[in-house]
Amino acid sequence: MPPVETPVEKWAGKIHEVNLGGDARRLVVGGETTLPFLHFEGAIPHPPAVAVEVQDRPPASWAPELRASWGEAMEDPASWAKKAVEYGADLIVLYLSSAHPDDQNTGPQEAKKTVTRVLSTVDAPLIILGPGIAEKDNEVLVAAAEAAAGRRVALGFCEQKNYRTIIAACMANNHVAVAKTPVEINLAKQLNILICDMGLAPDSILMDPTTGALGYGLEYTYSVMERLRLAGLQGDKMAAMPMFCTVGEEAWRQKEARATEGIPAAWGDIATRALRWEELTAMTLLLAGADVVVLRHPQVVQRIKATIQKLMTKE
Amino acid sequence: MALTGIEIYKHLPKTNCKECGQPTCLAFAMKLAQKGIELSKCPHVSPEAAAALEAAAKPPMRLVTIGVGDKKLEVGNETVLFRHEKTFLNPTGIMVRVADNQPAAEVESLVAEVASYSLERVGMELRPNGFAVDNRSHNPSSFAQCVATIRAKSQLPLVLISQDPSALETALEKVGQERPLIYAADSHNSEGVIKLAKKYQCPLAIRAEDGLGQLAELSDLAAKAGVEDIVLDPGTRGFASSLEALTQIRRLALKKNFRPLGYPVITFPGEGAATPEEEVLLAGEHVAKYANIIVLDHFSPGHAYPLLTLRQNIYTDPQKPIQVSPGMYTIGSPRDNSPLLITTNFSLTYFSVAGEVEASGFPSWLLIADTEGLSVLTSWAAGKFDAEKIAKTVKGFNAQDSVRHRKLIIPGAVAVLRGELEDELSGWEIMVGPREAVDIGGFLKRVWAN
Ligand code: SF4
Question: Which residues of chain B have a pLDDT value below 50?
Fold first, then answer.
């Protein structure tokens, strides 16, 4: 019998290394020269990072299970962020949700205040997201970018229809952009090209290919991410950005994580099912190449952190 | 892995005698590669060459069947490393471990729970596939007794787990006709266990403790002894080690056509996990990355449902998104003053919207546009859910005859289409619904309550 040769693929490319954070605490994501966790084949210099989603006002619509898990910390984004770091968050995703016109319609002043407070409370790097309405995003993210100068945060979402203002704010303050496209490999690459054409460096972009939760389009996200990662490793520099996935938000949006009444016994109890829903979504996307997973439930944060550690350790 | 014409040509006599009806050996080889002619048409091909060509034409990973009847489990025969390259074919079999030193009452209730577990999701049934009976007692008669207890409750396929050939045989005497998977031949017991697989004509798992080299040797040994249906356990148990081993096995089988590892793989996530929660995560890794059979140590609905959903997601054919037929659907018993909503025919979109409308308590009309199985945002981005398509759907399915009002609710994600739509559908008021299905209930309460 012939000896078994280790089947190693040769990759010409490397995922861009993106630096985040200030002097007190830096974080690097990306840098892989092989597929997720295949240590026998190439380098994985930085473990995927676990981010915790914090909102700038208590999210009334969150599932009771989730709200109970954070308790009073949710009343104040800075204490929420602090608690998230205690649970093991590598970074914080700060959603400026209150700026949405249907919410409190807060403006740049409030955004500046919130960002400053969170930054002075935790050293962990920050990703700041606007409310998802172009004009408001531009308004509050520009203010946030200035407030966070020197701390190299990430700002999002840059989308094909609205990226120029946010990219300009990134360039002016040495921040990172989060580029979001709807589950399609060419749209993702195209937006990266547009952003780089404006002058932002490829190592200052995280890309969000749009997350589908388990049972709700996960397989689309999974395959688009696998294709982007393969393209990046094959040398396509505009596909080689670290990937960012809003796992918690998508998983907890679904009926499986919320419904408590009138559901089949085969679904099991709500807490078990909801937590597994978030965890399995995260796990699957980590295997497709996620470099940052944004989570919501503290127990999920701990379990995914521990799992990443295991995936990074050769037994 | 199919051979190319050139590779086939190397095995032919190269005499161009034309007896096969082709002008040259090369032409014959090309035709054979495209399956346009049978190898037997060439009378001069040597037996060795014929054997080599036949072996090369076999699928790179064997299809293995466990169990009999309509609940049998078929695994293997995979042809790609990434689902987007084509599709994964035979969903991972999920088996639940039953230990033979558990009290019989416990075995019975576990078996009853697993056997009756079933739920429907996007029109498909999700259920576990069978049981793995583990000879923890090290006692052959307890093992056979446990098998009998399971069989009294369920006919699902079995894995028989024991290191002891005599224990395996007591169980095989009872269920050897039903093609259980024998687990496992290893470096200590291979002779006896391989014999059993031959005698009872059952699929055989082999387990290595010392790497893929040993696994290939054992598999080769079993194949040479005449066992055709083999399942591989590389012996790795952790998150990183099993990902590495399973990836290598899949690559060796598919890309190197390495026969000794061209078989389905079995894993035991419970043995690599510290808690039942972690077991689900490791099982999830194995569903995505290359396990064909998973044996679970714990079973509970709250864990099984997400895991079975993941299996469904990963094994969905990417070229054929699950679709529902376009048309006018009713939720509850709508009347001519009930809400009219439109969305796409991507099955998940349909099921989430229909579910939320149902839950809202408003009987409604739901129009489904043909977006070739794409979701709202994706189909909009691809130009398959634009104002024209929506207008065509409204007219094509005669929405004007279903409702007296002229109000159409469109998904919030395509709010930009509103103006254009009001031009396309004159006389209709276009209402922008929520971006997310979950908010439909609140939306209808707000805008439709009176
Ligand atoms: S019959 Fe065989 S040897 Fe003769 S031409 Fe055909 S392939 Fe070649």
Answer: 1
